[in-house]
Amino acid sequence: MLFRKGWEFSYPILPLNGNSTLQLSFDYLGNERMEFYYSFVHCNSDWSPSEYQNFDGNSVNEIEKFRFSFNTLCAYVHYDLTFPNENIKFLQSGNYIIKVSFDRKGEDIAFIWRFCVLESKVSVKANVKRPDLDEFRNSGQEVDFQILHPNFQFINPYQSVKVVISQNGRWDNVISHLKPLFVKPDELVYDYQNENIFLGGSEFRYFSTQNMHFASENVQKIAVKDVYYVDLQRERNTKFKAYFFNEDFNGKIFVKLQGSTDSDVDADYVKVNFCVPCQNEIPNGNVYLLYNLPNESFSETNKMTYNFENQEYTLTLSLKQGYYNYDFIFRDSKKKEIFYPFTESHFQTENDYIIFVYYADLSAGYDRLVGVGIFNTLKRY
Q: Helix or strand or coil: residue 364?
């Protein structure tokens, strides 16, 4: 997990030259402590490495804070890293990748995670509404917005301003490369009718493994062998179902062992069996479990397998105890198009939208992140 320290549900966005820090937490399964090293890569707005790779501090550092799990069936070592710290500070805004590796050279990568460093030069005003187009009127959400920059000058904004819109912090279905429709004094207007529409989806499915002594909602069966095993309730196909609101975390997870004051090392790992019925295998692509992954929503880790005998998609994952939001998505192998095969998409669905404003500063030679707006279909942060 990567979040603003002190707020686990926050998006990993760090103010430049501020007092805030980001906290990275992860586990390594087993009884033996492994050495982990971390480094950073500055990126352009499209996450390609930039030409700017200067930092205040060491280029590679070891993660020194670790603890062993306590009284768990599945043994693990828990690691924590807070940054910026005395070893590394960020000099410029923009997109960053933290690389965690098993070696100091950074060649044997354990995982990477994306985050952003923000210099607040502009503000964003947005209106997320029901689309006017009939095609998306019942299934989509239109994101209209303005960039206000009374104290910041954009040179050639049609070329230098890059905007990225993310739904619930995901990077696989962003809308990017929008140009301002109108350029006014101190204001850029993005009021499209088609190019800025997301599928609303539905409220996330959920389950809880905070207490393994009884089956909570959406949990069918709990078994204890070498580790804990959980069978979730057989999923319902909610295609063509009316919209139903339930408050969720918009795809996030919350690690928690009920009754513990230190879930980081007290919470156990549970093998969770996901199962969703489907009469036939969906051709020309794959079904994936959508949940809180570092960067990639489509990997072998969360790809589901079709069981022809039982006519269902299945997946088993080892997940730390807590509360989980998830859903199922399909990705076309050739066109890379995404849709929800078992879930209706509704314009009423509660979602977060994050609008990132980048400025391609030719004098600096990289994409500066000069503004971020976080908006919700029901409320504003």
A: coil
Please tell me the distance from the alpha carbon of residue 321 to that of residue 211, in angstroms, as a whole number: 8
The domain total for the chain is 3
For residues 228 and 314, state if they share a domain.
yes
Q: Return d(Cα 155, Cα 178) in angstroms, integer.
A: 17
For 75, the domain range is: 2-118
Assess if residue 381 is contained within a domain: no
Q: Using the 8-state DSSP alphabet, how is residue 195 labeled?
A: T
Write the CATH number for 79: 2.60.40
Residue 149 to residues 103, 220, 291, 353: CA-CA distances in angstroms? 44, 53, 35, 20
CA separation for the pair 368, 361 (Å, rounded): 7
Annotate 293-355 with DSSP letters as a single string: -SS-SSSSTTB-EEETTTTEEEEEEEEESEEEEEEEEEEETTT--EE-TTB---TT---EEEE
Three-class SS state of 10: coil
Question: What contacts 188, CB < 8 A, 6 or more positions away?
Answer: 146, 147, 149, 154, 157, 161, 180, 182
Token pair listed for 280: 């036939």
**Is residue 83 assigned to a domain?**
yes
For 203-228, the pLDDT digits (tens) are: 999 999 999 998 888 899 999 989 99
Checking if the pLDDT of 381 tops 60, the result is no
Length of the chain: 381
Domain assignment present for 344: no
CA distance 251 to 325: 5
Name the token pair of 182.
């109108």
Sign of CA dihedral 267, 268, 269, 274: negative
pLDDT digits (tens, 9 = 90+) for 262-311: 999 999 999 999 999 999 999 999 999 988 776 667 888 899 999 999 99
Let me know: does 158 contact 179? Beta carbons within 8 Å. Answer: yes
The domain boundary, picked from 118, 150, 174, lies at 118
